[in-house]
Records
---
Amino acid sequence: MNDLLLITPTEALAVVLGTVGMYVAMVVLVKVLGQRMLATMSSYDLAAVVAFGAIIGRASLGEVPRLAAGVLALATLILLQAIAGMIRVTRSGHHAVAVPPVLLMAGATVIEENMKRCHVVQHELASRLRQAGVRHRNEVAAVIFEPSGAISVLRRGDGIEPELLEGVRGAEQIPPELLR
């Protein structure tokens, strides 16, 4: 019965190292490939996330999963999330972990280079504009690709407060008449 539940100290170390390695690999891949893959999930994206979880779980738990290994892997993931949260609140840690928001549209102008960088295609942008109630591109003050992978649409009106654009890559391209 103990063979099904318990693990040796060496196996415990292997579980922790495997879990840390898979967590770091996933964080790096999301940072490199773009947070877009985890933002708004289609059925294909959901299937990929389930597969990611299975791969991470299999690599973390080893060939013969045991209850103790599963609990240890889960505790390690929770600890890594807590550490990442503490790192994100520091200025240098935020820059290392977080991805900055990126300007996709400045007024009615689509910034193609930023669209490519963020892996956003025209039909996704058009869909988000429709969801925001935009009927004409000239109603747009700015469209921003957020660190979460979401797309924010700011409409023309009273002007955008500069504080809302702090840290937005490409914000200098917004026409001055659209700013407050």
---
Amino acid sequence: MAELLGVTWLEAGAVALATVGMYVALVVLIRILGQRMLSGMSSYDLAAVIAFGGLIARAALGESPRLAGGVIALVTLVALQALSGVIRQTRFGSWLVVNRPVLIMAGSEVLQRHMDRCHVSYPELHSRLRQSGVSHADQVGAVIFEPSGTLSVIRRGQPMDPLFFRDVVGAERLTESSPGRA
């Protein structure tokens, strides 16, 4: 029974190393594919996340999972998450891990290149505009694709402080002469 619960020091190291490797691989994939991968999860997205978890667990724990190995994997993941939070506090870490917000619409103009970059479809954009009470493109001051993967809608006529947009990719499209710009 004890062999089903415990692990050797070599096995513990292997579990921790495999967990670190899978965590880093997932962070790199999210960084490459963009934050869109994690936003607005549909039932298909939820199924994919469950599958990711299964794959990570299988890779971390191997053929014969043990309680101690699972605890080591869990502690390693929590430690990596805490470490990534500390790294994100630095300028380089923030650049490395956090995606910048991207301007999707400047006024009524849709920036197709930015939509493609962020994997945002017109039905998703239109849905978010409707949820924000926008019924016509002329009512839009800006739409930003946020690092969280959500779309922020700023209505035309609302004052826009340039400080709030300085890190937004494409913010130069929001010129001082635009209506609603502070």
---
Amino acid sequence: MLKLENVSAAYGQSQVLWDVNLEIADAEAVTLIGRNGVGKTTLLRTISGLHPVMGGGVRLNGEQVERTPAFARARSGLAYVPQGRGLFSQLSVHENLLMGLPALGGRGTVKREIPELVYDLFPICRDMAGRKAGNLSGGQQQQVAIGRALVTKPRYLLLDEPTEGIQPSIVQEIETALTRIRQELRVAVLLVEQYLDFAWAFADRYYVMQKGRLVETGLTAETPTGAVQRYLGV
């Protein structure tokens, strides 16, 4: 289980997260929604170790990791795909995938190679292996970015706005792939998303964030998107 207990975070003297309590069970899908600028990306960066915790605790697989560096959390099974994908634009698709392999360090007999399932889920990773990542479309880049995260063999996958700027047909492909990732790999997913139809089709539960605090939670199956739409409006 991934669990946050009263997590707070700040940029300098400006606090942006207040007492966040959140948990994700194994193979569960949870979506985090809210307006731009309320702290969603900061929360993902804090969970992944890219932003320091000011207060509270982060538990990963039962271990306290709030003071653990990002690379160690990655080696413990936490993968993060940032908004904007975070690919190395001048490197090839294959070279970008290889960047995920160091996260396998310390995992015993785990093979240091690109899993065949990555190519099965995202054929673009094989078909365009030699092409520079910066020359791909936004949807293609997103598939490569998720593929790179899967190379690390995660237990928990954090996704920040994976459908942003992507055409609907690719969004459907990504939803299908993420569903297989949960079912076949038993990977839990925390999804920050503005596209409610996508989030509700994929996630089991939701959290709403306002001004750095979680203000509502529930089951997507029991909550129509219209009931939470107000949290996304300007």
---
Amino acid sequence: MNRRALLLVNRQSRQGQKRLSEVMSCLVEQGFELIAASAENPQHFSDVIRRYQHQVDLVIVGGGDGTLNAAVDTLVETNLPLGILPLGTANDLARTLKIPNSLPEATKVIANGKVQRIDLGEVNGKCFFNVASLGMSVKITQRLTKEVKRRWGIFAYAFTAVKVIWESRPFSAEIRLPDQSIKVKTVQIAIGNGRYYGGGMAVAPDAMIDDQRLDLYSLEIRHWWEIIPLLPRMRQGRHINARNVRALQAQEIEIYTRKPRPINTDGEITTYTPAYFRVIPKAVAVFVPR
């Protein structure tokens, strides 16, 4: 029996437009009956999912982490399972879930894989899969234009980060956990729900997307060059052991700053401080490899 799937592809993503026909033929080959809906941009995906929620068995999203983030709140609301086609630049959620970058293989995961319920992070009512952050990473997000990502691919993150690092200046923040309050001078605070973000960096060495906790780190460096030795360690999350990095774990976290600061969720700026973060255990069902 064919499964009915709502297919949403971000045509503006790095590979979305040019691989759309390949995506559709691969899914039909795997036995899916498709409703391929289009939207002007991923911010309209929520409306599309609500429109078709009673006509489909699952939602398949093709794009990067920002595209998936645009659909996440409505997936929780409708309780429809998610199939992921990694068509973006970094594809950090796909990396966390071990979903292959090969489109034919990714469609096989949706057709034949298992359904796993994963946690979500939430900040000020906005859900996220990977990481939410403020400080340096926001400036990187603001400079990572579509043109830069299309031209340089995954290396766009490294090139842009190098430009931003030397300009970064520490800011004051207060981190509140249920049992303590800490005042910090930092260039970046990141709160992770999943494992990978920013093109393959790990938020902590043991971070998992179903561990029912948030992993926080704060980069408390005084000079821009202090971040250089940390960069290679960030690939495995080992930067949290450095003396100028603070690492915390909790299910609920509050961040306060003197003036409102933008917060980046899965590569998109979506809210501002003051910020209340929490983990939502087993919030959404996703197809993953067996």
